[in-house]
Amino acid sequence: MATKLSLLQHLSRRSFNGIIKRAPFSSSSSSSSSSSSFSSSFSSSSSSNEQELQRLCGEFLRGCEEDAAEGGVGSVDLLLGREIAEIKLNNPKKRNAFSGRMFLDFEKVVTQLESWKEGKAVIIHGAEGAFCSGGDLDFVAKSLMFPAVGYQMSLFMTHTLNRFASLPLISVAMVRGPAHGGGAELATACDYRIFTRTAEVRFVQARLAITTGFGGATRLAGIIGGKQALKFLCSTDPINMSNGRQLGFCELICKDAEGLDITKVWLSDVFFKAPADIIGHYKRLTRPLDTTALRQRHLEESETFRETWGTDRHFQAKADAAAERLRSAAGQRSPPQSKAKENPQSS
Ligand SMILES: CC[C@@H](C(=O)O)C(=O)SCCNC(=O)CCNC(=O)[C@H](O)C(C)(C)COP(=O)(O)OP(=O)(O)OC[C@H]1O[C@@H](n2cnc3c(N)ncnc32)[C@H](O)[C@@H]1OP(=O)(O)O
């Protein structure tokens, strides 16, 4: 039912209901350089819905700026080559989890790529043996555990990944090691995925009693079909070298050390006979026919995320998962799941 409402109607009924007043990101008085650079990326927006989207994303970015100013770790680095751009997620001590600073960086990288006319492809990968372990749980715990702020994050990342997916470039996620939670969602925003032997794409959100926040469920269903997507989202089973190609999720599997080189050779062999502008035209001409329905589904995904994010059940499941990680690091068996996970009314 929520999806039938316009974003603006929906927000006025549900977003600013007091929860957001407690949320650290709710301050809307200050303006900042990166929020204004973000705003400029909505250049064609004129409707009130899009202004509202812009405002909420701006608020999320201001919170990210606070994290960066307080010494937030990690970065998203862009390396522009002759034909290929490389985006490196760089927070290796946390398996390249997204800190506030990295959300900011990622948006800036997408803005830069939007004006890169010479390029043909972009590869996204992670530093030091991991792709990305999702949101930085320290940043999440400090600043994001409110439904209204989770919603801001979800709108922001879904929109930024849609901008990324619309670049006139062939995009590839080179997945080495874990791509969990938001990291798995990131991999779905690319045109193609190349796995190394250690790749493990896992939509762990269900275990955390939340749904996907970055548009990943909609995108996964587009890649492997609704029936398979439903299984991997609910079971949290991994997509890896044993099933990735069969599912149509990844194109190739290679050794860890060769991931980047193989990806570049594959891009060049398959795509680079075409000039950059022709690649851009074909990107546009092969995009989904019904983008309105896609946007509507993404909005529904963000609204569903808000329903599940920051609830008691989410807090409990997050604590259970952390305890489980500690136990498995210590080589112990896990006890039964907590009651909170079984009872959707507990939030
Ligand atoms: C916010 C968006 C939301 C969404 O919409 O999906 C999310 O993304 S929620 C976050 C979902 N992600 C997770 O729950 C992943 C948690 N991490 C893991 O399960 C494991 O770390 C791993 C990714 C499978 C890697 O395992 P392993 O290689 O064995 O490494 P360690 O577990 O020892 O981790 C090393 C180091 O990194 C820290 N770490 C890992 N992930 C995160 C994270 N997401 N945020 C912050 N820190 C993270 C981990 O705590 C270890 O730190 P030290 O103990 O200090 O070395």
Automatic annotation (TrEMBL):
SUPFAM superfamilies: ClpP/crotonase (SSF52096)
Gene3D superfamilies cross-referenced by the UniProt entry: 2-enoyl-CoA Hydratase, Chain A, domain 1
Top-level enzyme category: lyase
GO biological process, one term: fatty acid beta-oxidation
Keywords per UniProt: Cytoplasm, Lyase
Molecular-function GO terms, alphabetical: methyl/ethyl malonyl-CoA decarboxylase activity
Superkingdom field: Eukaryota
Compartments where found: Cytoplasm, Cytosol
The protein's Enzyme Commission number: 4.1.1.94
UniProt keyword Lyase present: yes
Chain spans, region Disordered: 24-46, 310-347
Biased composition (Low complexity): 25-46
A GO CC term assigned to this protein in UniProt: cytosol
Protein name as catalogued: Ethylmalonyl-CoA decarboxylase
Lineage: Eukaryota, Metazoa, Ecdysozoa, Tardigrada, Eutardigrada
